Structures are given as structure tokens and as C-alpha cells.
């Protein structure tokens, strides 16, 4: 059986499943450089519940399961995240209207 693996983006560890799915909490923390990745994820789920269709739970090394997504799912999550963090509606990129 293959083992999950971890990559470090700057100083933030990002876990991956053996089949390449990314830990959403880790990825949010690494891309936003925030220590509040779980709160950001919870807010994103409330604002965009459709995001859960891109996710599944994975138990990393005996710990409680964490949400993971494949590359297409992470791309959608990242778009929604960037839209939510971009502030004023007038300043949001055009793809935000399509994403959410």
C-alpha cells in the first residue's frame, strides 16, 4: 500500500494522498499563508456549499479524516477562495462570476 506524502510550500506542509489528492486545509494554509485555514475552509463551505461535491475525506495516518480534492477540485476551490478574498465586487476578476 502506498503512503501519503507531504510537500513543503515555503514553511507550510501540504499533505497529499497516495493517489495525488491534496489536503484542502493544508493547501489553503499554504496558499493564503494563514494560520486560520480551517476557519477559511468553513466559511468557504457556508458561502459555496457546492464546493463539497469536489471533496472527499481521507484519514491521514490514523488522524480524523480531512477533506481532500483532486486537481480539478482544488482548481475550483482555489478560484472560489481567490474570489472570496479579493474584496470589493467591483475589483473581483471576471472568472468570479462564473465560479460562484
List the helices and strands and how they pair.
Blueprint: E1 5-9, E2 12-16, E3 22-23, H1 24-32, H2 37-47, E4 55-58, E5 66-69, H3 71-85, H4 95-99
Antiparallel strand pairs: 1-2, 3-5, 4-5
Helix pairs in contact: 1-2
- Strand percentage: 15-25%
Structural class: alpha+beta
Assign a percent range to the helix content: 40-55%
Kindly report how far apart the N and C termini lie: 38 Å
Order of helices and strands: EEEHHEEHH
Q: Give the strand line-up of the largest sheet.
A: 3-5-4
What is the residue-mean pLDDT, rounded to a whole number? Answer: 86
Keywords for this entry:
100 residues, alpha+beta, 3-stranded antiparallel sheet, 5 strands, 20% strand
Q: What does it look like?
A:
The chain is of the alpha+beta class and 100 residues long. The protein has one domain. It has 4 helices and 5 strands, in the order βββααββαα. The chain has a 3-stranded antiparallel beta sheet with strand order 3-5-4. Strands 1-2 form a two-stranded antiparallel ribbon. A hairpin with a 7-residue loop joins strand 4 and strand 5 (66-69). It is globular and about 40 Å long.
Question: What's this entry about, in short?
Answer:
With 100 residues, the protein is of the alpha+beta class.
Amino acid at each position: 500500500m502506498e503512503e501519503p506524502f507531504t510537500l513543503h510550500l515555503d514553511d507550510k506542509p501540504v499533505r497529499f494522498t497516495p493517489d495525488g489528492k491534496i489536503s484542502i486545509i493544508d493547501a489553503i494554509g499554504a496558499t493564503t499563508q494563514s494560520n486560520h485555514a480551517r476557519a477559511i475552509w468553513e466559511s468557504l463551505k457556508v458561502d459555496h456549499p457546492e464546493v463539497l461535491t469536489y471533496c472527499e475525506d481521507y484519514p491521514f495516518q490514523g488522524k480524523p479524516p480531512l477533506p481532500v480534492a483532486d486537481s480539478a477540485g482544488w482548481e475550483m476551490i482555489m478560484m472560489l477562495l481567490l474570489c472570496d478574498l479579493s474584496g470589493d465586487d467591483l475589483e473581483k476578476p471576471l472568472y468570479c462570476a462564473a465560479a460562484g
